[in-house]
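On clarity, I found the account of how folds are encoded harder to follow than it need be. What matters is that the chain and its backbone geometry are given together, residue for residue. The format is easy to grasp once an entry is in front of the reader. For illustration, here is how one protein appears when written out as sequence plus structure tokens.
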Amino acid sequence: MDEFWRGRLSPDACAASGAADARTHLAIATEALGGLAAALGLGAPFAASALARLSLHSAEIEITGAAKAGDAVRLTGGVAGWTEDALTAVFTHSDADGGALARTRIRARHVSARSFEAFAWPRRATEAFGRLPAQDTGWQALTESDAPGLEQAQELAAAGRGVFGAADADTAGRVTAHAILGRLLDAAGEADEAGARTNLVLHIAALPGRPYAVFAKDGGAWMLDAASGRALAELAR
């Protein structure tokens, strides 16, 4: 498999204990997605000057080994599937000796940087899809129905409230998926069993400066825009 990320885990990306968690692995997998996009001929879709971007819709993270801040990690993987305007990428996270640490699967849409409306891939990308080796994690497809129903959140007391800051945003000014996941994990708690999967579904963009509220129950969590009540994201296991 092709390599799309290599480096050492930053303490800032890890949990307070120094351990790599689902948020850590999603953050570096998002960087790896940028490398994969370059291999597809899409340039730099996470750059501030990009005319087209990749917008994350859902992610699955399965932690299979322990890692901590300072550890060397590499990500290999590629494209597992695609539609007219979206792709599914999978990555295997390994340590310096090749030991498995995690695997991630990300579904992202190809969107306009101005309107964030999805539009079709350019020909160079569809041609590249056919050349890249197919990836298969063996996971069943993630759908939004795998996440807990948002109506349940209305019956719960808030487990967290706050306002995202500028440091939580990407180059398009939208809060990153791993920043959202971090807040949800703070409320729901980390999965404590080996091989547990964390499933994240993103609904509408979270923006810096807007208040959010998080609700949690039985390992699931929901994030709402506290001003409008609209769903921002859901977490399920």
